[in-house]
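From the shared-data thread, chain only:
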Amino acid sequence: MATPRLASLRLAGADGGPLYVDVRTGARPGERRPVVIVCHGFKGFKDWGFFPRMSERLALAGFTAVTFNFSGSGVGPSSETVDEPDRWFRQTLSNDAADLGTVITHFGESDPSWTALIGHSRGGGTAVLQAARDGRVRALVTLSAVSSFFRYSPEEVRRWRRDGCIEVVNARTGQVLPVGTALLDDLEANGAGSLDITGAAPRVRVPWLVLHGTADETVPVAEAEELRRASGSPATVLALVDGAGHAFGARHPWAGSSPELDLVFGRTVEFLGRALG
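Structure, as tokens:
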């Protein structure tokens, strides 16, 4: 198997700014390989923790792996902190969905039967929505995925409206990152429609692997079970990783793998090999 190469490019983001995209593949010029697009979660970015390593593993397994920063991540092309705070402030989940559609269009049009999605945490919810409505997606893997985007108490919503923002602390960097009301407006307007994850789950008819740690401290394992029930499809498989947390033992900066993460990598590659083979 050829050593994966890394290439970077920019596409147009839903917020008017660029989408920063990395591509890892061992394909020779003119060779087509199945495309696997990886979606990070809230406070994540394409270079966080295990995403580059997962992408390398996918590329070594014969896929073309694509990672990117959602336009509302606020993270620049080579940064590990929010260095575009205005974009972070203006983030919306509908923009996330539009960004993912842009990436699929760029990479998946030539052979849409070979496109798969992997989504972690909030990115898992976005991937579910896309797989439910986009016939170009032929397989789905969700990692520690949320079953609902609305995760705020009435008091938090009240303060958000009063102050015009809600502050999010990045525990890793110590940054205090305000998010504007555009996200809340989007959730309230579309939470029961285009942003309804469990409502979309029954429309996912492609093979779907739901991976979740039993000790997830951020997204309870009950949400994985809810996604499986909502799907109702025999092509949806729930695989619980015993004792694993939200990132399956991975940290940022990368400090090496864990048995739980190795299991996730292996199950993901095996599943996509069957689904896209």
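Residues 5-149+183-276 form a domain with the Rossmann fold fold (CATH 3.40.50.1820).
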